[in-house]
């Protein structure tokens, strides 16, 4: 016979906080509170989530510490990221650690290319072709910022073609670092000697050749001399 409702112990405080954090994350990831937008006030969250003020406060504080939310004095609490790893990576991204960033990119992108050659679909190949064409057009246009974005989009398309959800999530967390390494290598202008052809990478994936795809992906991410 189950115990009376009023005799059932309330869940421990830590459990309630974790549940509340999960509920907040779900609403952020679901787009209910988009990046750049303000989340409801504390009293509104208390009413909506059915928990106490202290529980809401601790859950919000945890997500602020994780870099997902930001409290702005006199304005409210805003969503600044949907990815808890991205702010951590961004804080660690300094000029003297660029060699490490390139090594991490190499680890991700070489394996992504190898898997993409094994798993790519017709839709993936179309996405790769489109991303490559956009990258080439940006290079011809001569705008560094546009080229950096289209280059990142091509690499992201390769990772997507690998069809490994965890790899895609981890790669997304280094997106800022990825763009920074490309921007640093480009400098202030798109000079011909800095151009790197990515068509062979796409063709290796299209051919279903994992070994060649891995070689092509790693060729332009060699550590700097003396690193």
Structure overview:
By secondary structure, this protein is mainly alpha-helical. It has 2 domains: 5-82, Orthogonal Bundle (Arc Repressor Mutant, subunit A), CATH 1.10.10; 87-219, Four Helix Bundle (Hemerythrin (Met), subunit A) (Up-down Bundle), CATH 1.20.120. The chain is 64% helix and 4% strand. The chain has 11 helices and 2 strands; from the N terminus they run αααββαααααααα. The protein has helices at 13-29, 42-49, 53-65, 85-92, 98-119, 122-141, 144-161, 165-173, 175-186, 199-206, 210-219; strands spanning 69-72, 76-79. A two-stranded antiparallel sheet has the order 1-2. β1 and β2 (76-79) form a beta hairpin. 26% of the residues are buried. Mean pLDDT is 82; it is low at 1-11.
Label this structure with key terms.
single chain; 227 residues; mainly alpha; Arc Repressor Mutant, subunit A; Four Helix Bundle (Hemerythrin (Met), subunit A); two-stranded antiparallel ribbon; 11 helices; 2 strands; DNA-binding; TF_FadR/GntR_C
β-strand number? 2
Query: How many separate helices?
Result: 11
Structural class: mainly alpha
Described by strand count, sense and barrel closure, the largest sheet is:
2 strands, antiparallel
CATH hierarchy: architecture of the largest domain: Up-down Bundle
How many domains in all? 2
The CATH class assignment of the largest domain is: Mainly Alpha
Strand order of the largest sheet: 1-2
| Rounded mean pLDDT score | 82
| Net shape | elongated
Radius of gyration: 22 Å
Which residue ranges are poorly predicted, with pLDDT under 50 across at least 5 consecutive positions? 1-11
CATH fold node name of the largest domain: Four Helix Bundle (Hemerythrin (Met), subunit A)
CATH superfamily of the largest domain: GntR ligand-binding domain-like
């Amino acid at each position: 016979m189950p115990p009376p409702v009023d005799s059932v112990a309330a869940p421990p405080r830590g459990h309630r906080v974790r549940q509340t954090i999960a509920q907040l994350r779900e609403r952020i990831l679901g787009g209910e509170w988009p990046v750049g937008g303000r989340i409801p006030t504390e009293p509104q969250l208390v009413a909506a989530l059915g928990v106490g003020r202290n529980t809401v406060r601790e859950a919000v504080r945890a997500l602020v510490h994780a870099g997902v939310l930001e409290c702005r004095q006199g304005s409210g609490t805003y969503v600044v990221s949907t990815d808890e790893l991205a702010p951590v990576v961004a804080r660690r991204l300094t000029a003297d650690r660029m060699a490490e960033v390139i090594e991490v990119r190499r680890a991700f992108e070489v394996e992504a290319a190898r898997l993409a050659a094994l798993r790519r679909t017709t839709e993936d190949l179309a996405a790769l072709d489109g991303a490559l064409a956009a990258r080439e057009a940006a290079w011809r246009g001569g705008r560094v910022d546009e080229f950096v974005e289209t280059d990142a989009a091509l690499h992201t398309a390769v990772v997507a073609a690998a069809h490994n959800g965890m790899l895609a999530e981890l790669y997304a967390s280094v997106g800022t670092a990825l763009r920074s390494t490309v921007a640093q290598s480009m400098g202030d202008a798109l000079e011909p000697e800095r151009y790197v052809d990515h068509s062979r990478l796409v063709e290796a994936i299209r051919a279903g050749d994992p070994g060649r795809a891995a070689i092509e992906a790693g060729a332009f991410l060699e550590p700097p001399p003396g690193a």
